[in-house]
Design goal:
This protein is mostly beta strands and 333 residues long. It has one helix at residues 4-7; strands at 13-17, 21-28, 39-41, 48-51, 57-64, 71-75, 78-87, 98-107, 123-125, 131-136, 149-151, 155-163, 171-180, 192-196, 200-201, 210-211, 219-225, 233-243, 255-258, 263-266, 299-310.
Length: 333
């Protein structure tokens, strides 16, 4: 059997990114014309196919980003839609003979904010009249996720917020987050650190993880890329803290690592990123300064899960497992 590495070339693929869709034209040589049904965009076959006078074939793929298993990722001020073209002379699980990445990049709208219809979906009471929320979002960051099943390598955005009520403006921080296989942490529990050292996103030095730009000081989105935590069912345990929005410190911050600059950056004010220099060392606790804000400020422990991380090939067998991610707070069950 011929191999696609000899018959297909990247230059034969033309990509046009539209507003909410993509048009891909793929020209193949005459030897591949009988195998047109084995050309794919994600999991979609060609929407149009024709044989040219030269004997070559031309496949056109016209699809929206909600089709063909496109993945969406929001990074800073840009939105990425990603997929791949493939030629599969043999059916799965055999690997494709040829793969070509497809990517469309758009600038995020200036007025973009997550459109949460019911932000109190996952709620736990905290100090006094403070009410904390934590939930898994969908990939579009537009609402609470409808499933707790997450394909390996796909986005895993975690949203947290605190209701202001009668309080002065608040800054919500994730001081510490770990992944664990259980809803309760006990001495000796197996954990995977995600955020530590008083607000340092440790995972951002290893994977494509970050804090997304805030749309309000009282909420924060931790944007993780799912991976193998070492256990199938994952619970995210986070210590959420509130603080004065104008008074950052080594112990009151949200820092993530920017691989492009090889340095830690303060989410809320990059010009003051020196506060993040301690992330690779040990960040000091803040000393007490008066009555209005205690040295640590109000904090609350929240738990989200279980989240089920599955390999892409296992998704076909997981349809019956679809369910909404819920808090582990027994009062909400």
């Amino acid at each position: 059997m011929m191999t696609a590495t000899h018959d297909v070339e990247d230059r034969d693929i033309n990509v046009v990114c539209a507003n909410n869709s993509v048009r891909v034209t793929w020209r193949v040589n005459a030897e591949l014309v009988p195998y047109a049904a084995r050309l794919f965009l994600g999991n979609c076959m060609a929407s149009q196919w024709k044989v040219l006078p030269s004997g070559e074939g031309e496949a056109q793929f016209n699809y929206t980003f909600s089709e063909c298993k496109f993945t969406k990722m929001v990074k800073g001020k840009r939105i990425f839609y990603q997929n791949e073209m493939s030629y599969r002379p043999q059916t799965k699980p055999n690997p494709p003979d040829f793969v070509h990445p497809i990517e469309c990049v758009y600038r995020r709208p200036k007025d973009w904010i997550p459109r949460f219809v019911n932000p109190g979906y996952v709620v736990s009471e905290g100090h006094g009249r403070l009410v904390f929320h934590m939930a898994l979002l969908n990939e579009e960051l537009s609402s609470i996720a409808k499933t707790n099943i997450i394909p390996l390598g796909s986005p895993m955005p975690i949203w947290a917020a605190v209701e202001q009520k009668s309080h002065q403006p608040l800054l919500l921080l994730m001081e510490e987050c770990v992944a664990a296989p259980t809803a309760e942490l006990r001495p000796g529990s197996q954990v995977y650190p995600i955020i530590g050292n008083k607000g340092c996103l440790l995972e951002s030095k290893k994977e494509n993880s970050m804090f997304l730009p805030r749309y309000h000081s009282s909420s924060i989105i931790l944007y993780l890329q799912s991976f193998n935590f070492g256990f199938r069912e994952v619970y995210i345990h986070c210590k959420l803290a509130v603080w004065d929005p104008q008074n950052f410190a080594e112990s009151k911050k949200a820092c993530h690592y920017i691989k492009g600059t090889n340095r830690w950056e303060l989410l809320d004010d990059p010009s003051r990123s020196s506060l993040c220099n301690c992330c690779d060392l040990s960040c000091k606790s803040r000393s007490r300064r008066g009555v209005e804000w205690a040295s640590d400020g109000p904090s609350h422990n929240s738990v989200l899960g279980p989240l089920i991380i599955v390999d892409q090939s296992d998704l076909r067998d997981s349809d019956t497992m679809m369910e909404s991610a819920t808090t582990a707070d027994p009062q909400l069950k």
